[in-house]
Amino acid sequence: MATKKTPKITSIETPVPMYEQVYQQIVQALMAGHFEPGQKLTYRKVAEQFGTSPMPVRTAFQRLQALKGLELLPNGSVEVPLLAVKSFISLTEARIAIEGTATELAASRLNGNNLRTVRHHCNQRTAAAKAGDIDRYLQANFDFKFSIYRHCGNEHLIYIIEMLWLQAGPFLRKLVEGTPFTATEVLDVDFHDKIVAALEAKDPQRAREAVAHDIRDAADYMLKYAKFLSDEDVRTAT
Prior knowledge:
With 238 residues, the protein is an all-alpha fold. It folds into two domains: 18-81, Orthogonal Bundle (Arc Repressor Mutant, subunit A), CATH 1.10.10; 85-225, Four Helix Bundle (Hemerythrin (Met), subunit A). It contains ten helices and three strands. Strands 1-3-2 form a three-stranded antiparallel sheet. Helix 2 crosses helix 3 (54-66) and helix 4 runs antiparallel to helix 9. The longest helix is centred in the middle third of the chain and has 23 residues, at 85-107. It is globular.
């Protein structure tokens, strides 16, 4: 009796649903600092930007509200959240711990090609700062950091970092926009070359410390110049 052959099953590529595409685009925009704290977003305007109906945008907004990336307002629109100073300091401490760990783990995993990519994003960030191109600077900063974190070998760490950046990303714009700090001056307190040097030297501890200094110095500046919720606002919200 002839043995029946198992039918060959080929994979079927399913297009990414529109609501997922919209969600990912908004997540990337928040993490890269393309929206700022306190900015109002409406379903209609965002849908027009994406060339889609409001429904996928509404779905994306609801997911981001659950993750505290957006906040629902009484009129039905949403807002990029402002934070109280205490919450921002707590967020900064979490970032230092988690992103420092991811950098330390990545230091032993990054190879020659990966390191060249990290160096490329570092150079792109510097060029954008010198050109005063805020959007390109913020995108290059995001690309630089995540080209390191994504090599930490721990998906749970990456997920946590992304959740932290949903709240931290919008404040990064305040580092180079709307304050006395300019995109060029950001290079004066820049730790990115030190991060790259430590990674190239395969020195996990030094890389971790450089990332910690980078996050802390940026946070100190934002605490001085960025707009935060007042204690009265916090009491009212609760």
